[in-house]
Amino acid sequence: MSKIRDEIITYSTSVKIGLLTILIVLLWKYLMKLFRRDHRLVTFAETLPGPPTIPIIGNGLDFYYGGVHAMKKVMGYTEKYGHIYRLWFGKFLVVGLSKVEDLEDVFMNSKTMGKPEIFRPFQDYWGDGLFTGPMHIWKKNRKRFQPIFGNNIMGLYTPEFNDKIYKVVDMMKTLLNGPEFDAWDYLPYLSFDIITKTSLDVELDWNDKSVLQFHNSVKTGMETSLLKMLRPWLHIKFLRDLLYKKQVEKVQGSMLKFSQQTIQNKLNIIKDDILRRKNIINQDPNEVISLKSFLTTAYEIQEEVNNEKLMHDEIITMITGGTDTTAITNSFFLLAVAIYQDIQSKLYDEMYEVFGDSDRYADHDDVKRLPYLDQVLKETLRRFTLAPVIFRDVEEDCKIGGRLFPAGTALMISIIGVHFDPEYYPNPWKFDPENFSPEAVEKRHKLTFLPFSSGPRNCIGQNYAMLEMKLTLIALLRHFSFHTTMTMDDIKMNMGFLMTSVDGYKMSIKPRNRKPSYL
Ligand code: HEM
Prior knowledge:
Elements: H1 2-34, H2 39-45, H3 67-81, E1 84-89, E2 92-97, H4 100-107, H5 123-126, H6 135-145, H7 151-154, H8 158-172, E3 181-182, H9 187-200, H10 209-230, H11 237-280, H12 285-288, H13 293-305, H14 308-321, H15 324-339, H16 341-355, H17 364-368, H18 371-383, E4 389-393, E5 398-400, E6 403-405, E7 410-414, H19 415-419, H20 438-443, H21 462-479, E8 480-483, E9 493-495, E10 499-501, E11 506-511
Parallel strand pairs: 2-7
Antiparallel strand pairs: 1-2, 3-11, 4-7, 5-6, 8-11, 9-10
Helix pairs in contact: 8-9, 8-21, 9-15, 10-11, 11-13, 11-14, 13-14, 15-18, 15-21, 16-18
The protein binds protoporphyrin IX containing FE.
Cofactor: heme
Membrane topology: Peripheral membrane protein
Main location: endoplasmic reticulum
């Protein structure tokens, strides 16, 4: 009896082991199919150096710990493997590039202008807007929006910028001679206020829940898109949906709600603007171009292609692009000049030359008369590179730096790799505005400074961002002097989709003694 029972147990154990083996084999085959790599990519990757990989997931664990760790990894790759290296994320081949001559080929080539397949998670949130949209939509819409951000019309927005900036100056007066605070508690709201006013003509109401929800949603969208991109197990739709579907819907919902409310409230104004533009278009095209017509242009596009979602995608993209970007850079700038008091004194001396001790607002022409401010801001954009890496798709086989790249390769342009390359900046970790003296700039290749990327798919808001940041910094530095207990060594850079400071931007302010340092 017991022998029969033993045989039954042995039999059922064998069946279980057999079934488990079949299951494992099937799962393995499924994963192999899912993560099967294109043999042309594999052959090409074998010609490139790169860190060791794990079967199937490739380098997917390299960025597991994110933040400070990711920053070290990316910098480490360039140090160890040079200007070109390969990484695998599941089936996706990603080639890191940081040699300016190679980047020249990438930025100017229409076959490497699009975003790669691995970047697709970002599309969940920003849809077909400029940042993530497919090439055929991007090409048309970029052309439509480009004149709205032309340097020639930026001066028109100075009054609106100043209006918002001086509200924050007043708010910050309550912090005078007080303890340290975090600049991050103020500056994102200023940037958000400015971009919604200038591009949508909307006055933000901070008591309206949807405003805060929109801001938080953008952050969540960025963070989770990055995870979905770099963690190969999240390339499996089933797992991705299981873990993130609800969150994606929530984030999409709050972004859309904000955009829909805006359109709703502005519908009559938009229609009037469209009429006005039609009437004067034959007289002077420049007259009709104003940043406020961003909203009108987005509306016109949706009418032309009968796609309301596209209009919301463009609005959400523009507001996203214009918010934390300038706020982070301004925060780093103020922290750096709080650390380096000599740089801050030199900045104020230059401003004193232009404004004396008057209270008048700065305008577009004043900004042009402050070359040292330009240098310090550019050094901030280098030393605290906002977008550490950006991605491009090799749509068709093409040559980059004399090497043939097969279609399907994802290019990771390492802007930090360029900005911290000792060949271009001899002492890259030092905060040194002299890196942007006219003599130093003249000696370097123009692509050694890439905060806004380059070529036809660069940052459309570059002129706008520079003016907004300068006007903000001028107003703040004319009213306050900035101080901090932080040192340069205390600043730990957190590499997410945007580079931020792990411990924030702690500073205190005192009233500005309105005299230059030499008096
Ligand atoms: C410090 C400020 C800023 C920096 C450093 C910055 C940097 C960048 C970079 C590097 C890109 C290229 C991204 C890529 O290729 O994946 C980009 C794209 C973009 N930026 Fe900015 N940006 C800033 C401010 C702004 C502002 C103020 C706006 C809006 C007014 C804006 C709107 C956009 C848009 C819409 C794109 C997508 C452009 C396209 O693909 O055609 N950015 N930005």
